[in-house]
């Protein structure tokens, strides 16, 4: 077993507890009450709320002084202004609600705005990715590393496609026109946490999205970087967790990808 710090152990405990609840809810999807955030295309359910409450309770018992930023409940400031948990309790809610098992519990700790530890737990696939700065990245306690593929024509990419109420649809169409002729494949999984985990373990060579939230990617930033990857914004600039875009990739393809997804408006 990989050597887990008390921090990682606490984060894994919270992720596993939330994951067990999500598995129970997944078995009873038809009974869940579904609500909408801004439009019919942006859903959440009782399962999201229960999972976030579970994570918050577990993490608060470990470090009650830390702040907590959750997708469903927003930011709750803590007595320690430097440390904040960043949590998406159910990344891939649409997948979950249609019965697709590609969804994850995403937990990160950010210190002074930088993600320093992350856990991505995919309950129905029995896969748990985790990393802490300077300690490497792991899948179910086995070390992982990014892909060694060297050329774009070999690359398989993950992408977040903007749904109806999200912006930048023209940008996405341009990206597809540029990339599909020069890569091996492009996949849209519907859960950024899973996409980033797949970059970290070498299944994907990159993942990008032009409209994304901090809780979707914070855990993945640490996991990808500790596995040897690069994470920037989609312009290739240093990532700010709440800047709204992300590009996670293998170093050898990063600059080509930045060019391929450059803004259509110049």
TrEMBL record:
* InterPro entries listed in its UniProt record: IMPase, Inositol_monophosphatase-like, Inositol_monophosphatase_CS, Inositol_monophosphatase_SuhB
Asked if the record carries the keyword Ion transport, the reply is no
Cross-referenced CDD domains, in alphabetical order? IMPase
What the record says about family reads:
Belongs to the inositol monophosphatase superfamily.
Question: What SUPFAM superfamilies does the annotation carry?
Answer: Carbohydrate phosphatase (SSF56655)
Q: What is its EC number?
A: 3.1.3.25
**Cofactor entry:** Mg(2+)
Chemical reaction(s) catalysed: a myo-inositol phosphate + H2O = myo-inositol + phosphate
Transmembrane segment boundaries:
none
* Keywords for this protein: Hydrolase, Magnesium, Metal-binding
How is this protein named in the record?
A: Inositol-1-monophosphatase
Stored Pfam families: Inositol_P
